[in-house]
Specification:
The chain is α+β, with helices and mostly antiparallel strands. The chain has a domain at 34-136 and 144-177. 16% of the residues lie in helices and 51% in strands. It has a 22-stranded mixed β-sheet that branches. A two-stranded parallel ribbon has the order 5-8. It comes from Novilysobacter luteus.
Length: 423
């Protein structure tokens, strides 16, 4: 009786290779899970790759954590981003939260879609940032990710040369590199004893250095002597080059009120010009200025230059539509016409406008040249009815001919001082 042949078993060598392959795969899986179970290693890998792409050394000194449930998330604490060899980091952050969809992880960077980014207590050094930008190759453009769930910043700070902006809060619902973006930015500017809290709605036409920017909201300049709440609106085109970062075609309009202990002055201010920041210096040159108001506030149009480094320097030349009735009367013959009055103004000092100011007026061949401190003049004007009738200023007045009752004076030159002349 015929019997069926017994099934042949696989060769011993082939079976061993199969088991070894399965065992190796299992070991690799266990090692991978063990490696993934250590958030510092995952965070370190991601930060190393991000740093290599940006030309920065990025490290995290705090506890890192991540989750693969649902949308993968990564949390990094005590982040420091530094240009290699630099003494000061470009950026520090107490906490960075990233929510990354699986499609981004599977693409290995080809798809830069991020669901949400949160920064807690980031601290940006503007000088270090500019040095890093200068070190980047011309082709070293940074790819901008898509943020479907937006960007959110709390307790941020920007450090400049002698100034800072703290308490920064940024809320941006979404961000797409090829679309317009809008959000809210709030914070507080500080320079010595002067502060300026602000809260602005900001919009960009795109996310690039070629974008146009627009913003509006509220801000208040605060000094120990006075406050100036305002509603600014400004626009411009982002600029980044060898002459610094800033805005081309910068335009600002603001309705404002100057509030002191005994006076309120309402006015409207307009500024225009290229805005730059480089090596600790804010600069608008050339600068256009328009001022409108009533009472002590003149109607003025001027051109000149604005610079801010440690203190403020303002140089203007222009015209006053007319000499305000609320100001001290001009000497004759400067007061003999309602025609626009040419002037030149130079101011240097701290942000609270307490520094020395020089004002020169010209009508025909007659000139008036005065030096004063604005807070002193404002205090004097508030007590003009009961105080000294002469303003607190030093200067001179010159005119070829001066008509007075009963006489005509030629070649008149008068000097006046607020304090006695030293011997």
């Amino acid at each position: 009786m015929d019997t069926a042949p017994a099934p042949r078993s696989p060769p011993a060598g082939r079976g061993r290779r199969l088991w070894l392959a399965l065992a190796a795969a299992l070991v690799l899986l266990v090692l991978a899970v063990a490696w993934l179970a250590q958030p510092p290693r995952v965070a370190g890998l991601i930060l190393d790759r991000a740093g290599a792409a940006l030309g920065l050394e990025i490290t995290a000194g705090g506890v890192s954590e991540y989750s693969l449930r649902g949308t993968p998330t990564l949390v990094v604490r005590d982040l420091v981003a530094r240009q290699p060899g630099a003494a000061w980091p470009v950026l520090r952050a107490g906490r960075v939260y990233l929510s990354l969809p699986w499609s981004t992880l599977r693409s290995r960077g080809a798809d830069l879609t991020v669901e949400r980014v949160e920064l807690d207590a980031p601290r940006l050094d503007l000088g270090a940032l500019q040095r890093w930008r200068a070190s980047r190759p011309p082709s070293g453009e940074v790819r901008i990710p898509t943020l479907t769930g937006g960007l959110h910043v709390v307790r941020g700070e920007v450090i400049g040369a002698g100034w800072s902006v703290d308490g920064i809060a940024i809320s941006m619902p979404s961000l797409h590199p090829d679309r317009a973006v809008a959000g809210r930015v709030a914070g507080r500017f500080r320079n010595g004893g002067t502060t300026m809290p602000f809260d602005l709605q900001v919009a960009l036409t795109e996310v690039s250095m070629a974008a146009s920017l627009g913003a509006s909201g509220i801000a208040t300049v605060v000094t120990p002597e006075w406050r100036m709440p305002m509603r600014p609106t400004f626009s411009g085109r982002l600029h980044g080059g060898d002459d610094g970062i800033g805005l081309d075609r910068f335009l600002l309009g603001a309705s404002a009120r100057h509030l002191s202990a005994d006076r309120e002055l309402a006015f409207y201010l307009g500024l225009a010009g290229p805005l730059r920041y480089l090596d600790g210096v804010f600069l608008i040159d050339p600068l256009g200025v328009a001022l409108r108001g009533a009472g002590l506030v003149p109607r003025m149009d001027a051109a000149g230059r604005f610079e801010w480094q440690d203190g403020m320097t303002l140089n203007l030349e222009g015209t006053l539509a007319r000499w305000p009735d609320a100001w001290p009367s001009l000497p004759a013959p400067l007061d003999a016409s309602d025609a626009p009055l040419a002037f030149a103004l130079d101011h240097t000092g701290p942000a609270n406008l307490s520094g020395p100011t020089r004002l020169r007026l010209l009508r025909g061949a007659s000139t008036f040249d005065a030096r004063f401190h604005l807070p002193d003049v404002l205090a004097w004007s508030s007590q003009l009815d009961s105080g000294n009738p002469l303003p607190p200023l030093d200067g001179s007045f010159a005119t070829p001919t001066l008509e007075i009752p009963g006489a005509t004076l030629h070649g008149v030159e008068i000097e006046f001082r607020d304090a006695p002349v030293d011997d």
